[in-house]
Structure formats: structure tokens, C-alpha cells
Amino acid sequence: MSEHQAEYKKRDQRFWDVVALKKPDQVPLMPMLDFFPAKYSGITVEEAMTKPESMIAAWLKYLDDFQPDRAENPFPLRGFAPLLAALDFQHLKWAGHGLPSDMPYQFVELEMMKADEYDHFLGDMSDFMVRKYLPRVHKGLAGLAKLPPLNQQISYFWGLYNFAAFADPEIQSALEVLKNSSVQAQAILGHAAKFGQLAVEKGFPPGSGSYAQVPLDTLGDVFRGTREIMMDLRRRPDKVLAACEKLLPLMLEMGINGCKRSGVPICFIPLHKCLDNFISQAQFEKFYWPHMKILLEGLIAEGITPWVLVEGVCDQRLETFAQVTPGKVVYHLEGSNIFRAKEIMREVACLRGNMPPSIMSAGGPDDVRDYAKKLIDVVGQDGGFIMCCATSITDAKTENVRALFDLTRDYGQY
């Protein structure tokens, strides 16, 4: 066994030990990166997003210099600017496309499904996606809105001549955009595979294998928008529940299939709409948690570990979050009280986080070391803890990142 293979095995075992609530040899360390490797290597965010070789070199340099316990592949959620541009994607602004060259991309909330379109979404979701949603979220596909309903192409006497619509120049333009986008998508997948293989060869297991969301988050994030979904909870609750039921099997399928394709049984699930100051506990228990629990347990049943990023503050939800199969879930806490979470989930779930971004970006190495020691002493006392920051480390000082790594390696031994 080579040195890199041995390191891979050691790092992988360390991760699975803490997930199972065991004491590993040391506290695992795997910060969320965003574009920190670009900053560290001296390239702009725009260069990283548009030049695959630059991105690969920067992320490999980070692996070599810091030696984290798992490798975050940058391409699925970072190196996709050429594809976004080809589609004229509307949900994001990114470096060189609405933002300065050195700023991470920003999500743009848009109402992509109108309040009166719930019935279309519920009745024929595929038709809604092709003729309503895709033309709105990708301006390059605007011509698809002119398509006749695809469910009417049935026989020679039903819809045969609807194919004449494809002669429309706007529809043909959309088809050309799809063709060009397929080339970009294939290229990005190739770069992702290349990076993943190089990281494995260096001894770093992959960080995650798929992505999923709780249905209410998907409905609110990308279809209705936060303001609109909050009003829908009161104005049309039955429609919201029906839409969540429609989305649940799709979320589960995407999480499972992504892990099967990648061979990495870890599914990343960010939580957005369940924050304490977003919805009440009663709304959480009605519209959010039932589907979240089914999603988590469905993944677990397939041998997949959910990595749940609990964004914002969800202190009122911690006892409910603990109602999962023990030793199978990682809860990554941003602003929630991780020390109270440890008391609640000590025998239930592995915790990850929550070094404050204020310390990483505005504090000094001593501040980092002091807080990291507290995390290890309290949250990592019995195992079941992964050292990580509350959010990504893009804006962190390099000396603070080094302090986090050095302290965790020296002090986080079992």
C-alpha cells in the first residue's frame, strides 16, 4: 500500500468513525471552501470559474498545503460559469457576469412560478418545467415557452402537426442553446472527474456525492421565492403541502441517484426555510419536518449519510432534528447553539461546525485557537464531531485557516 493510499484509508475511516459516534484517532477537519483556494493561490474568482486548469491547480494546492480530511470537488457548484453563460441563467449573478471579478456568486431570488400556476405544477409538472420554468430561469431557452403542450403529441390524429411549431425561429434558437449547453455540461463533468481522481491519488476521499433539499426549501428557493412562499403558507396551505408531496420523491431520487453515480454515499442537504425567525414551530411541524424526516430516513435506508447544513439559527428545532436514526446523520450548524445541540444529540448525530466567520475573517490566530479548543473540549469530547467553520472560509485570513488546522491537528487527538 502506497503512502497516499494509507492516508486515504486513514482519513476515510476517521470520517466514518465520527459519523457513527465513535472516537476516531483525531478530530476530523474539513472546512467548507467556497473560493478560498482561489484566493490562496492568487487567482480571481472569475478565473477559477472560467478556467478549469486554474481551478484544478488551485484546489490541489490547497489540498497539498493544508491536508484536510476530505476533498471538496469545486466543479459541481463552482466551476460552471461557461454553462451558466450558455444558458443565460437568471438565478445567479457571478464574477464577470453582474459581479466584480473577485466576488463569489450570489443567488437571485425570483418568482419563477406564479401563485395561480400551482395547479399546472401539480397536474403536469414536466409540462410546467419545459414550457414555463425552464424558459424563465434560462433566458437562452425562452423559445420553449412557445411550444405546444407536449402531452398532446399522441397519435396521427392528435397533435401530429404540432411538430410544425419547431420551425419557429425562437424555438430553434432554444434548441441550439441546448445543444451548446450540452457541450459545456459534458466538459465540466469531465473536469470534475479529473479533479476527483487527482484528489484520490493524493490520498483525499471525496467530500460528498449528491445534493438534495427538503421540499419546502426547493419550492420556496427556486419556484416561488421566500416572500411568496411565506404568504402561501397562510393563503394556500393545501397547495403548498401538495407541492411538497410532489417534490419529495424527486428530492429523494436525486439524492440517491447522485450518490450511486458518484460512488460517494454522502448527500449534502442545506436547510433554508426552517429558521427560527422564518416559520413558527407549528408551521415547521406541518410543512417542513415530516418531509425532511422522510428524506433523511429514505437516504439512510439506501446506505447514504445525510450531511445537513443547518443554515441560520434553528435552536427551536434541535430536539426535533434529533428524531433520526442514531449514528447516521451529520448536522452542520451555522448559527445554532452547537453546545446545546451536543447535549441533545450526543447519542444521536455527529455535529459539524461552527467556528464563527467573524473570528476567521476579523479575528486573529489566538482567537481561532481559543474557540477551536472550546469546540474540541465540549463538542468533540466523546467523538462525533467534525471541526469546520459555520460558513465557508472564502473571506478568512490565511493565517487563521492555518491556525485552525494546526490547533486541530495538535490538540484534537484522542
Q: What percentage of amino acids are in beta strands? A: 5-15%
What is the chain-wise order of helices and strands? HHHHHEEEHHHEHHHEHEHEHEHHEH
Question: Could you give the distance between the termini?
Answer: 25 Å
Arithmetic mean of pLDDT: 96
What integer value in Å does the Rg equal? Answer: 23 Å
The biggest beta sheet is recorded as: 6 strands, parallel
Low-confidence stretches: none
Please state the structural category: alpha/beta
Question: How is this structure best described in words?
Answer:
- With 414 residues, this protein is an alpha/beta fold.
- The model has no long low-confidence stretch (mean pLDDT 96).
- The protein has 17 helices and nine strands.
- 52% of the residues lie in helices and 9% in strands.
- Helix 4 (52-66) packs parallel to helix 8, helix 9 (215-224) crosses helix 11 and helix 16 (365-379) packs parallel to helix 17.
- The strands form two sheets. It has a six-stranded parallel β-sheet. A three-stranded mixed β-sheet has the order 2-1-3.
- Strand 5, helix 12 and strand 6 (305-310) form a beta-alpha-beta unit.
List strands and helices in order, with pairings:
Blueprint: H1 3-19, H2 36-41, H3 45-50, H4 52-66, H5 81-87, E1 92-95, E2 98-99, E3 106-107, H6 118-123, H7 125-137, H8 169-201, E4 210-211, H9 215-224, H10 226-235, H11 237-262, E5 266-271, H12 281-301, E6 305-310, H13 318-321, E7 330-333, H14 338-345, E8 350-355, H15 357-362, H16 365-379, E9 385-389, H17 398-411
Parallel strand pairs: 1-2, 4-5, 5-6, 6-7, 7-8, 8-9
Antiparallel strand pairs: 1-3
